From TrEMBL:
Pfam families: Plug, TonB_dep_Rec_b-barrel. SUPFAM superfamilies: Porins. It is a multi-pass membrane protein. Its main location: membrane. CDD domains: ligand_gated_channel (cd01347). Keywords: Cell outer membrane, Membrane, Receptor, Signal, TonB box, Transmembrane, Transmembrane beta strand, Transport. GO terms for molecular function: siderophore uptake transmembrane transporter activity. This is TonB-dependent receptor. Residues 1-19 form the signal peptide. Residues 224-676 form the TonB-dependent receptor-like beta-barrel domain. It comes from Pseudoalteromonas maricaloris. GO terms for biological process: siderophore transmembrane transport. Belongs to the TonB-dependent receptor family.
Amino acid sequence: MLKTTLSMVALAVSAAAIADDTNVKDLQAADMEHIVVSGSRVFESIDEVPASITIINQKQIEDHLKVNPELQSLLSQIVPGLAPDTGSSSNTGQSLRGRAPLVMIDGVPQSTPLRNGSLGVKTLDPSAIARIEVIKGATSIYGNGASGGIINYITKQAKSDGKPEGEISLSSRFSAVKLAESAGARIAGAINGRVDQFSYLVTASYEENGVQRDAEGDILGLQYGLSDTVTENYFTKLGYDFDEDKQLQFSYNFYSSQQKTDLGDVFGNINLGEKSYAIHVPPAQQKQGKPQGPEGNENITLKYTDIEVFANTQMTLDAYMQDIENVFFFSPSLANPDEGYTGGQSIIRSEKKGARATFNTLVDFDNVQATFIYGIDALNDVTSQPLVDGRIWVPEMDMESIAGYLQTKWIVADDLVLKAGVRQESIDLAVADYQTLKLCRSADQCSVPLNVKGDTIDYDATTYNVGIKYNANEKFSPFASYSQGSDISDIGRLLRSATVEDIGQIQTEASIVDNYEIGFNSQFETLRFEFAAYRSTSEFGTTNKFNEVTGVYEPVRAPQKIWGYEALVDYKINDTLKLIATYSYVEGKDTEADTYLGSRQISPPKLTANLNWQPVDALSMTLSWLHVGDRKRFERDDKGNYVGDQGPIDSYNVVNFSGQYQFDQSWQAFVGIENLFNSDYFPARAQAYTYGGYNIKGLGTTATVGVKYRF
């Protein structure tokens, strides 16, 4: 009986992962969304998870891809609790409930938490994704870096049982405000099939952006910009079924997205309301250095699954390797005139090697079904941030981690769900002796380099989680949970700004994040409602403080408290019209100084609405609305300026449209319009960040047109 249950769950998850929602009715799609994978590292019903979860299905991904190919734009529109889209290649400031999320592909971490460059969201093309699972709130189930939760990209799988199946799409994206130089082109294709026990899936995408223009027709600033970006993604997944219980799966992902431009920036000042924008300039004034962006990041994963390795127990063994090289923009602040440097450009390099063993045992008692999930994780993460010219900004950090964990779930009388778990993790972080980098904003404003004695820092943490959910009445299904996360993320930022000569004196303590959450789900005949309120605390949060002598933003460790609430309404108005609306509010303070946290962590209130209309089977249209509210918590300094990430945020609205028409089983045409009413605005991060170059306006009206062919 339990073997049958495990097999059915595995088949259900496979169906959810590969389903093409274009041809699936609402009820079927809703049923599939009751399966999640990342919450406790095994497949389970969403109804059995006492936490807030957002599932983005394939239809939602495809609809948004017609408007904007950037994943952070999609996530911002659909996920309550996630900060608004930055409109750039960087997700700096796009926190999840005020803290950093851990981005994963099929459960394999993609973020670089030891030196968080906030580029983890851009690791995979949306065309390779079957669905996205977002688990909100601090968790340690996957280890370091998930203080805000988890964003897990679940990739597609082979679904053909006979001859090969596939698709190819062609599209162009261009500014409707000023066409000149804005037209780009995108091609994406996929093929999958099965030969006896062997299955295969291959996806590929290539995109060249033209220049991106704001509502006034000016080219957006280049810092983390997307103008003239060339993006490539090649993903493959191969599987072999030894028998009905045992499967071996190999996957490979290559992702590159770099800005290759001959433009130059004209920097503005957000304190004066001036935008940064780009123009054509002589070669000497063009964007300097290497092209910015991910430079051929690679992931390799090998996974073996045995549905019943022994009585009532499923085993999953996986090993992975990752090579990341993210290139950042050329910055004049990385200057050192006395050694001949007038600026610099940094690279975050990260190499990970990991292995994991996960076991899932089901036990049936008289009126209780118990699940025990346990295993061991091992990880080696070597991360650094050198400059292209050879100078060392962040020294190499060599982390060795070993962790064991146990998660339990108890379902009593089919209605009461109890979950509890523990994770014990030991981390050794080795850093050799190094010298901090001398940085000069001007000839008279320089930091003082220090020789810092390296060492091996040991971290040992035991974290716990417990939750309860009651499902007796679908009209009111309440839950409550407490979870902890152990976080040593962004140690590199602390090391590069060291003001002492011994690494042991730098405040590199791990931060234990305590997350409390209560909420409920309500399901009526045509209406689904979700609500959650949360509070998280940490003893060693990190904020930035500007040093006026050196011109460097230095990290400050202090206790933090973050709180907020979220709501979602999913309403099927009639057979052809469906509305999904969300609202999220988050706030936070440095509890030691009793001051509000800046916009690097805390985002303004966000309201979204997505209205889908399908008058006939062949035609579907979606109208989406994003409202970002005010947040004005800080005062000007004695010079009359806002500093750091403390600029005031004024509200703004953005409306998008997408539509598609299915001519027959093979051919489809589609159109998308971003910023339909050409709203002229600064995104939330651009308003709040007073750092040079971030004050870039939002994208003006931009259109996408394309066709898709399936075979």
